[in-house]
Amino acid sequence: MKFIHAGDIHLGNPFLGLRNLPNWVQNIVQDAGNTAFRRLIADAIAEQVDFVLLPGDLFNSNEVDAQIELTVLKAFDELRAASITVFLSFGNHDYLASKRVDFPWPSNVHLFDESVTTMQLTTKAGESVAISGFSYGQQHIETAMIDQFPVKQTGSKYHLGMYHGELGRAGSGNYAPFALTAMNEKHYDYWALGHIHLRQTLQTEPFIGYSGNLQGLNKNESGDKGYYLVTDQNGQLIPTFVAVAPIIWAEEELEIPMNLATNELVAYIRKSIQGDSENFSLINLRIISDDARVLSLIANGQLQAQLAQSSQTRDPWYIWQISLKELQKTVQLPHLPVDAWDNNVTEIFTLDNMQAAGLKQVHDPELLDEFLNDEKLTEIMDMVKVKLQLLGKDVSLDEN
């Protein structure tokens, strides 16, 4: 028996936090989720798997773009032509709606509803498989859905569980909290988990774990992303990770020599960036420097602009964010040590203070979303700290 376990594909994800990208980078980013999904489908056919398990959040939202739905239908129909079955449950992002059930899914696609259901399958080799799972009927489930799962059926060689949720006690979380002991009491041969985007193994035998998502959705989801190809090895179902994400979120650190002209600085950075040998990298560049001019170029955004202007369509990476790895702590600002300034900045830049300072007058929802999030506040605080640092140096901040 051979199958694929792929959770949290999130087709239609908007990749929040990326701004002012060149068109060629924007095109790569916009198609990243679809590219990863197409790679999974191609691999499933090439590997001649028996079935594919998708434990929740195939779509990024409960409201799905028609083009995305057509992409999924075409992909699943390709699997049907290859005699590959799809077992699909819906999670907290794409929770079950009537139109999901009524949608013209190909005959090889089997949907789980809001109650735990067990489906049967016979593999190409004639092995009997039972698969139990459920879908979210709303965004949050506080009950322990694991309690509704049946114990392994004696008539099946394998019994697999699909579960979109998180570790925890019933009533202590919003995403179908479960305990490993409860899963083990079911005596299943494999638990295909979804919801957590970080690939992680909770238990090796029998396997209980998250495949992670197919494509990292933001800077916090770095490294290779993909799915598990699961095979029977001496009676035990063993997952092997297969990377398919076309974009890798990465962070690189670079120490900058003193006294470089702007064009030399840009050339030095471009020459030093490593990126990923196989995939396109979106890089958060952490610069280490005590050069006042470099600090100024970072603070007023000129370095970011110069690097964007120098980017080329053949580049296998793009620097989407620049920040300081270390700030100079020896400079004494007037009347207060630097750490006191840092503390004050942290206290000042809160959501409440930002709204009181004027954001409450802004009615554009997209603009509000841009500013009223933790990432934007952190970005603003970093810029303020850099400029505070420059007060102790003889540097003019050119904002033009």
From TrEMBL:
Please name the InterPro entries in this protein's record.
Answer: Calcineurin-like_PHP (IPR004843), DNA_Repair-Maintenance_Comp (IPR050535), Metallo-depent_PP-like (IPR029052), Mre11_N (IPR041796), Pesterase_YhaO (IPR014576)
**Molecular-function GO terms, alphabetical:** exonuclease activity
Alphabetically list the UniProt keywords: Exonuclease, Hydrolase, Nuclease
Q: Highest taxon of the source? A: Bacteria
Q: Mind telling me which Gene3D superfamilies this protein's record contains?
A: 3.60.21.10
Q: Which Pfam family, just one, is annotated for this protein? A: Metallophos
Q: Which residues form the Calcineurin-like phosphoesterase domain?
A: 1-197
Q: Could you identify this protein by its name?
A: DNA repair exonuclease
Q: Source species, please?
A: Weissella muntiaci
